Amino acid sequence: MAGLIARYTEWLHTRWPAGTVEKLPRMRADGGTNLPGVFISGDLTGIPLLKFSLDSGARVVRSIASDPGLRSEAQGKDTLDLVIIGAGVSGMAAAVEAQKQRLAFEVLEATEPLSTIVNFPKAKPIYTYPRSMKPAGDLQVSADVKEELVQELKDQTARAGITPMASRAERVERQGSTILVHLAGGGTLRARRVLIAIGRSGNFRKLGVPGEGLDKVYNRLHDPKDFSGKETLVVGGGDSAVETAIALAQCGAHVTLSYRKSELSRPKPELLEKLDRLRRDPKADVTIERPHSERVTTAAGPFVMKRDPEGSVALKLGTRVSEIRETEVVLTGAGGPEVIPNDVVFTMLGREAPLEFFRRSGLRIAGEMRTRQWIGMGLFLL
């Protein structure tokens, strides 16, 4: 009980969420977790910088490879040395290092390799701080523009022979000296060690339609001014979609909002009121100082609005995207397919937050008390 009280006191004074506190999994300095053999690297370590993500992925794998117990554990031939969950920057750095260390490994990716960077706007400047830092491992970066950086990373991973497996990990489970990685659809992988490098954003849901992999398709909005005058499709029916539509229209984009249901019932009422005002009058004084969605990273209002060209908003409720083409998209509704001109698509669909993966796997999260701790606290207070 004394230990419980001490942990509660620490939590109360150091981790009580007085403001908005982002929860992160508990881990040791080497990336290890409370589940033996399971490690974490990348943004989830608490430092969302590109070079630190590269560095942490490579260093964890070096530590795993140098562990004498890795090779001495008796396992079947179908057991991998390492499963890397996530093919982002950190996961790819880990994979390159695993290849160098001659480990038997697999990389799992639920959406698209390097998806966070791929979804940056075109020609976005990339700041690789600290400039003097050289990350551990062979995967390095020097480009300072999105497209060049993506190509640089793809070239290096291709030369290393890294080909991620297209699959989503649902949870991990310790079974004796083996770790089971449960996959969506019912399959499993067996491994001696697991590295989780899924980032903070989790897995964004996909449309699953032809053309979704085109460069003009994004799942985040960074700078709406980049799309002034563009024919823009926003897909979704939540806060993210509505805030995206508002920001784009105020910066001069011609926005079509497509949602599969016949009405928008999920967004906050104040957002719907602002969207309706903007739909009726593109010059309406509509402001969103602090977007509710983490996928919209800029404020919206007259202070960013471009009068020339003037934006617009059109609603296409009860429709689904059936195909994305280079200069148009196909929407299908009750009246059949409709082809509309299009320059850019924002798929602002739901996502699975990474913390749910950790909870399903029994991995502890900083600031969260487990059931037995709450029970103990209740008994203490009685």
Any key phrases for this structure?
FAD/NAD(P)-binding domain, 382 residues, 2 domains, alpha/beta, five-stranded parallel β-sheet, elongated
Which fold name fills CATH's third level, the topology of the largest domain?
A: FAD/NAD(P)-binding domain
Tell the overall outline. Answer: elongated
Instruction: Return the CATH class of the largest domain.
Output: Alpha Beta
Q: Summarize the main sheet.
A: 7 strands, mixed
Mean pLDDT value? 84
CATH architecture group name of the largest domain = 3-Layer(bba) Sandwich
State the fourth-level CATH superfamily of the largest domain: FAD/NAD(P)-binding domain
What oligomerization state is this entry in?
A: single chain
Strand fraction equals 15-25%
Show unreliable segments.
8-21
Report the helical percentage. 25-40%
Distance between the termini: 14 Å
Keywords: Flavoprotein, Oxidoreductase
Protein name: FAD-binding protein
InterPro entries: FAD/NAD-bd_sf, Ferredoxin-NADP_redctase_2
GO molecular function: oxidoreductase activity
